[in-house]
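Inputs:
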Amino acid sequence: MSAALPIALDELELDALTELVNLGISQAAHSLAEMAREEVTLTVPQVRMVPRDEAIRIISEREHSKLVAVHQVFRGDITGRALLIFPEAQSFELVRAVVGGDMPIDEIIELEQEALAETGNIMLNGCLATIANHLQRSLTISLPEILHGESREFFDLEPPPPPGDLVMFIYINFALRHRNINGYIAMLLDMPSMTALKALLKAYIGRVAGDVLAG
Amino acid sequence: MAGGADDYWNALLDGLDAGVVVLSREGRIDCWNAWIATATGLQAEDVRGKSLQEVLPGGVSRRLENAVKAALDSGASTLLTHALNPGIFPLRTRAGRTLLHDVAVSSIATHPGPSCLIHVSDVTMAIRRERYLRERQNARYDAVVAGAPDGILTMDGEGMILHANPAAVLQFGYSEDELIGRNVAFLFFESRESWDRTWRRVWEEEVLRDSVEIVAHRKGGSAIHVEISASRWKSHTQSFVTAILRDVTERHAAAAALSDLNATLEQRVEERSAQLLAAEEALRQSYKMEAIGQLTGGIAHDFNNLLQGIVGALNMVQKRVSEGRISDIARFLKGALSSAERASALTHRLLAFSRRQPIDPRPVHLTQLVRSIEELLRRSLGESVRMSVRSNDDLWLVRCDANQLENAILNLAINARDAMPEGGRLSIVTSNRTFGPAEASLRELVPGDYVCLTVSDTGSGMSPEVQARAFDPFYTTKPIGQGTGLGLSMVYGFIRQSEGSVRIESQAGQGTAIEICLPRFVGDLEQSIAIAAPPAAGHAGLDKVVLVAEDEDIVRLVVVEVLHDLGYKALEAVDGPAALRILKSAQRIDLLITDIGLPDMNGRQVVDLTRGERPDLKVLYMTGYAEMAASGDFLEKGMQIISKPFSMDKLAAKIKDVVEGVVS
């Protein structure tokens, strides 16, 4: 599949990216654990680069209920959108897991939107900031926004995306208070950002390899 | 920060309805606008250049610290909401109330490096509005739910109870705290399958259209029947189930009681049927008495005539004896005896009507039987009805209870009389008939020889409807109080029991003929006489020994005399124990004649107690209470019963029967 992409990451670059995402996610897990005062396990089984349509297809095939997304925009050498996507029902579970089981249900409902925004914010920040730091580039990351809808709507936000852009597609698994929640992080990158990312990853690999050689 | 431009920007910052704090790259406060100064009570001059920790000791969380760091290091923007971070800063409104706030931390591009912008927004109003709306909604909800007589539980998607109303607490005996947080299935531990099925249905169908009844358990373990209706609902992203549980235990108990009642219904119907049968029996008896009443006039007249004959003859005997002319008194004595015998026969007949006579099927000669009651019939029919009897002596024998047959004929005659209030003709005809298959099936009989008796009148007749129901019990066309409607039904019952048939031929206004057919009896003519049995031949007893147990001296005397005349040797006992003593001895006893009603020990007890010594003892019971013997079920082989009063001839015949083993 990667071969078909106009700008593809090679295996090494994808490995490096997966590693960075894992670092970012574990940073996010740490922040969430602090907030929830409970151990949080966040795992990333897979990172893929897929065309936008493919990402839409994957999610709509796997998820039949309505979805909720936390959306943030990032700008810098790499520019794009980050989306944390859950089935609606799972998003509630996520919030409940974070705020704890003691809170009355209607209060949780009341808090849900804000808590979800904040939880998603932590996870996306963790990812983006960690990747940016390791690639030694600075990004400006916006505040979170909550979206409800279907996967196609999430990937067709205004302004209309240019054709041929790619999605860094990350499956995440979230375990907290005996709850197991599956979701996705999707990062939509335009062509120049993709080119920049590839270059940055190459440089990163060079540094890491250099360290290894030097060590 | 001096000069016009600065003043402009400062004025703008102070004019914002939001808190603005800017931290330098080193984390020192660079900017502290008027809003945050008011909310914290700390003036800009006092905080500028200091760290947040210094300004708000203990008021800076790790979250905020991390957010500031992320903004400065990575350009990340972080949202800290009041929802997950209540009271990030100790802020107050101008009125001194708690100020609810969200905090956004982001980086701003400043020279020489980025600074951190902390933006605090007041969400007190928004949250108050939400709470107000929620409370108002809750108030409505509470008014319904809290006041509902049925238990109402709200569960999350996994069945965990989130809310329980007071009725549910009362219903199940668990406190609200004990219910909330548990899976609702624990209430249905014994009907878990039904509950799981119901739960699945709610998820599939969203609303349970028809309520489901399930057994639940209270805290103490007692069962409670609940009728469940439930629906699934959604709030934002989450589904819930609210179930209404109606306690139908009482309804259940009532239904169970009803089903018990139904179960015992059959038994109660049987009891009632038995009572009804008893009542019917009593009614039948009273019907007989009614018939007797109808006959009494004629009988009383008859009886007086007979008494007259006796009294007259005895007067003559007395007169002749006093005159010393005893040569012809035998004629008068014979006359008196004859009248007395006829009087006895008359009382017998009365007893027969009232069924105080043992049922005793014997060969019967119909002609003789009709003749024996002819006089009685004539008298009871009255002057206006002319009666003719046509029968011949060649008639075959039939076998039935003679008394019941008389009764039946009388019933038919009374019906005929009542059908002819203006008078008319009544005829009784007897004949021998041989029925082929066609004639037999018409009468529901088997083909063969029959003796038929037809009672016909010239009365009002019966319509086909009346004919169809004429044999139904209690069916009557007579006015209330004049008939029970049992007469024909009993005639029918008796004849069918004797394997015969009853047929009605009638037309309204043309009179009625009722035909009774009884199967021919092939047997000994000598045994056929139901009435006026021939005198027994004497001196048959030879050396046989008979024990007579009878407390009435005169009766005992007469019986002993008869025995002596018959050539038997007689032993006497005046009561049960005396009889028992003799029976327990080695004395030869060929026959025991005993009154049933003996003092101290009755006749049946005497017989029972000697069964060991004399298993084959022949017994002839005498009784004045014939109904005791009517069932006859205690009579064993070699036993017979004779009802008082009896003639000497009849006694002699009975004795002979028993001793010689003739089975009647």
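The two ends of chain A are 36 Å apart (CA to CA). Flag for discussion at group meeting.
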